[in-house]
Amino acid sequence: MVEPNLSGGCQCGAVRYRISGPLANMQWDDFTVTRGAIARSASSDLADRGFCRECGTPLTYEGKDAGHLNIVLGTLDDPAAVRPAAQYGLEARMPWLNEVLGLPGETTEDAGEADALKTIRDSSHQHPDRDTDRWPAEQSGSQ
Ligand SMILES: [Zn+2]
Asked: Is residue 138 part of a domain?
């Protein structure tokens, strides 16, 4: 999975990053934090989990001795642009996962939540899914 020059960050924008190499088992030389700092929590003796200290967004999985890291794909500015090529940790997969896409579904608006959705959109503190010159970014799409 090679997708050079991707960027991403946490939900609030306090942490932003850029990637210039493969996403899976990415080398540290291919990963640059462009704003803020990644906080870490040791999830075991072998790995740290990186996250934003401001908003809690999970960002990385870092093997302590492996010399590489993995990015949480949902933190990319355009996560749909990257297609996963493999799965890992299958023993922890929820037994219902394969059934989810076959369940009945509806959009938030179809569920009668249009007013709540508008309030969320109008009051969102989420950082835009792109780099900005400053943080916190001004709302309404400014840079
Ligand atoms: Zn954040």
From this structure: no
CATH number assigned to the domain comprising residue 62: 2.170.150.70
Class of residue 8 by CB neighbours under 10 A (exposed 0-12, middle 13-18, buried 19+): buried
Q: How many other CB atoms sit within 10 Å of the CB of residue 45?
A: 7
Query: What is residue 58's three-state secondary structure?
Result: strand
How many domains are there within the chain?
1
Residue with tokens 């076959």: 102
Domain that holds residue 36: 6-123
pLDDT tens digits along 45-94 = 999 999 999 999 999 999 988 888 999 999 999 999 888 888 888 999 99
Ligand 1 centroid, distance to 81 Cα (angstroms): 22
Residue 4, preceding peptide bond in cis (omega within 30° of 0): no
State pTM to two decimals. 0.83
The answer as to whether 139 is a domain residue is no
- For ion ligand 1, residues whose CB falls within 5 Å: 10, 12, 14, 52, 54-55
